[in-house]
Amino acid sequence: MARDAQEFAAICQQLVGQTPDSIAAPGGESRDSMRAHFGEQSLIVTHRHHLQRAKLEALVLRVLNSAKAPVPRLIAWREHWLLQQDMGAERLTEKLDQADTLEAEALLNSALSGLVFCQRSAHEAGLSQQLVSLGTQRPWFDKLFSRREAVADYLNLPVPDIPADALVEQLRMREPRFVKWDARPGNAVINSRDEICWIDWEHAGCRNGIDDMVWLLADEYSPTTAETEQRLLDTWIGGFAPGWDRSEALDYFYSYGVLHSLVRLDYILRYKGDDNWWNHERCLRLDKVGVTREHALRVCQRVRRWAQQTSSLADWDDWLVQLEAAIPQ
Question: 51 with 111, same domain?
Fold first, then answer.
């Protein structure tokens, strides 16, 4: 249920004893967070529909604040409501959209550096032993595998076979590691010092650290080339997979990356439906799924590139060629 600005203002009064001069809804009024202005200062007021999500986010922010991680400072928390430092209005998606290849690579390097720092700090603080494990049951894997069926059905393509049991074994959780889990570029903002800060921690939990790297680089808003990806993997795969054999970590990245890319493509095609593609600028401004042909093609091209690097999904190549060709005009 959408909440109105008056309710957000009242919460500010309760939590910090001051009513804001104004309330803005940068992501639209249906979103969970609004920006409260107090003179020249501003704070982010967030309502989480589930109390456990709010408690989780507050806990994670307190731990990461203590480590001086690139996340908002938690100012106050009460039940479903959090008041946080305003880290900036420009999302990483918007910055990437305007960047050339070298600038995009620098931004993604910075984003990955921050994620590794957050993972390591939370793990060292014991959160990997406290938080719930994610993606451990077979129904979760089956849902992940089913995205290829949804995409194929939308585009009237055959459904490729999948080595489900082998992938369940490959992608199972090893040692539980803290992950953000929703590490898409829309959940990162640029602060006043041009630093990338990670926001929205209500989905954090434990799984394989590589998953966060996949969430970032497989997103439709991440404009990567094969050369960029190789350099980013060379630099960061060890940080996201401490103790792993390098070749095993890379195969995991590409395999999970293919499947997660199909999640993103399923979202894009499902939201488009039989209507026109969405407006690119509006998708960026309101932090929407990138329901544009450009974004769909980017995902298709990347998923084919990644599948060719896997030990389990390389035989999808012909199907992935058909997939890209079937994207609507």
Answer: no
| Number of other CB atoms surrounding residue 79 within 10 Å | 11
Instruction: In whole angstroms, give the CA distance from residue 158 to residue 29.
Output: 40
Q: Which domain holds residue 39?
A: 5-88
Tens digit of each residue's pLDDT (9 = 90 or more) over 270-301: 999 999 999 999 999 999 999 999 999 999 99
- Pair 164, 312 in one domain: yes
**Using CB atoms within 10 A of its CB, is residue 318 exposed (0-12), middle (13-18) or buried (19+)?**
exposed
36 - beta bridge partners? 23, 43
CA distance 51 to 94: 31
Whichever domain contains 50, its CATH number is: 3.30.200.20
Residue 1 has pLDDT above 50, yes or no: no
248 & 128 share domain: yes
- Stated as kind and residue range, the H or E segment containing 139 is helix 138-154
Say whether both 71 and 95 belong to one domain: no
At 195, which amino acid appears? E
CATH of the domain at 112: 3.90.1200.10
The answer to pTM > 0.90 is yes
In the numeric block, the tokens 């630099």 are attached to 235
Q: What does the CA dihedral 194, 196, 200, 202 come to, rounded to 10 degrees?
A: -150
